[in-house]
Amino acid sequence: MLIESTAYASRWRDVAPSAKALFALGGICAAWLARSPAMLAALTAILMLAALLPARVPARTYIKVALPPLGFLLLSCLTMLTAPDANGNWHWTSAMLPTITHTALRSLAMLAALLGLVLTTPLPDLLTVLRRLHTPELLLDLMILSYRMQFVLQQAWTESHTAQSARLGYRGWRQAWRSTGLLAGQMAVQVWQRAAALQSAADARAYQGTLRFLPATHPQAGRHLSYAAVAATLMVALALGDR
Amino acid sequence: MNAHTLPPPLLELQAVCHTYPDGSPGLSDCSLTLRRGRRYALLGANGAGKTTLLQHLNGLLRPNAGTLRYNGQTFDYSRNGLTTLRSRVGLVFQNPERQLFSAQVEEDVSFGPLNLGLGPDEVRQRVAAALDAVGLRDHARRAVHQLSFGQKKRVCIAGVLAMQPELLLLDEPMAGLDAPIQNELATLLDGLAARGVTVLLSTHDIDFAWRWADDIHVMAAGRCITSGPAHELAAHSEVLAAAGQRPPLALTLHKELVARGVLPHGPAPRSVDAVLDALRALPAFESPGDITA
Asked: What is the chain B residue with the closest CA to A145?
């Protein structure tokens, strides 16, 4: 939800999604190729600053969204710091430290590249890119429907939850458990009904078997793409120079 | 209206019956006729069968008995037949949440025209025109879930307008909208009717039906119990009572004022505002009890 609203508010919202995807891809390739920790750190900084400064993603949001994957990364690094000795006892070791630094920095750079893409590109635009890359129609239809249903169901859940609270459904833990159970059961019915309703709504508009929508146009896509290509090439060149 | 001047029927229902699979009744022996270029209101209480009827007109539901004809031809329920029918008869559902399934406004509006097999340029042009018509051009690239209820409803209408139907069906279009948006919507529908689009909307608001429609079909218990020009129908209070409706407020008010000699005899105004305008046109007289400074 936070990612989505940030993407809509971002200053890069109207930049061609293909250009943003190319830039992110350049970042990922460069992170893959780069060797020295300094170069990886520099790439991370470039990719982060691109999202924070020209794209104007608020720093607070950026950190909030980055925290869960960072936590995961930290946990993985900590496990690599422990190793069994000859007697099978676990203890801290710094033998792996260079590998850990390298892995952590590479993950960070890739994370920054991906965050830069998803925090500036709403999902519908990402779907357009996937469609142009000839992703199977069925998969895209599923993504579109899941995306839309997520909001429809979230609203249904919130409304029912509010209605239950208004009738004291959550005054104690016992009631809360009961209400949550009822709500979950009710949601199953809701999903069924809404799916049927969407089917007839699609039929009413001459549905032919695939969900077809008009992709958004980006008149400046050519210019954006060339900027992105230059930036991506620069990053990859830097990484190659580092080898 | 004289029988000779009536335009030919666009869509006809003859003795249509429908029972839902769970046994609940939908339509029973329902017959009505829609003619090209007119504004129709389908008036009835909740559960009278309005939605079931609309879903029949668009081919979403099939009758258990009886026939439907479009332009004199019996409905063709084959895949191609239904596509043709639905390209001519557009249906706007009551709950926008159940109609909109794509993420972005522009995308959702493009869904219908693309299904008709039109090229991207034509579709783009139609989407822009439809969004213009409902006043949402500036919202074309917004996410559907960020819109208000009224805006979502207008996106639904745009999605059907973009298919350029000859007959536009709207299920309770005014439900849940505030008065200014209702007026805007009525103006939009008037504009469509002026361009030759036949409009049928279902409503349980007799004051709106009386104010807006050329003709009214009254439904009760799955049947169309009477049809006719709004000005003739509204006076038949016994028929309206059978459908659970009171006569239009403007009509009742006008009648009382005429009976008391306040307003002259004449055709009844279509809205309370029109009655008030007629009253304001009368010379004001000072009552003896007035306090003057």
From this structure: B101
The parent domain of residue B103 ranges over 7-247
Distances (CA, A) of B139 to A205, B34, B128, B148: 21, 34, 11, 11
Report yes or no on B203 lying in a domain. yes
Residues 98-137 of B with CB under 8 A from A: 98-104, 106-108, 110-112, 114-116, 120, 123-124, 127
Beta strands B223-229 and B215-220 are antiparallel
A170 touches chain B (CB under 8 A): no
Residue B180: CATH number of its domain? 3.40.50.300
Q: Does A157 touch chain B (CB under 8 A)?
A: no
Select the more confidently predicted residue: A195 or B272: B272
pLDDT recorded at residue B288:
58
B86, B93, B103: residue with CB nearest A123: B103
With CA atoms as reference, report the closest residue to B236 among B266, B206, B199, B205: B206
Q: What is the pLDDT of residues B65-115, one digit of tens each?
A: 999 999 989 999 988 888 889 989 999 998 888 788 777 888 889 888 888
Mutate to test the interface with B, among A205, A207, A212 (most CBs of B within 10 A): A205
Distance CA A164, CA A168 (A): 6
CB B203 within 8 A of CB B41: yes
- The answer as to whether B113 is a domain residue is yes
Of B55, B97, B123, the CB nearest to A214: B123
Q: Where are the domains of chain A?
A: 2-129+218-241, 136-204
Measure CB to CB from residue A206 to each of B86, B102, B146 and give the nearest one.
B86
- The ipTM (two decimal places) reads 0.70
Rounded to two decimals, the pTM is 0.77
Cα–chain center distance at B86: 17
Number of structural domains found in chain B:
1
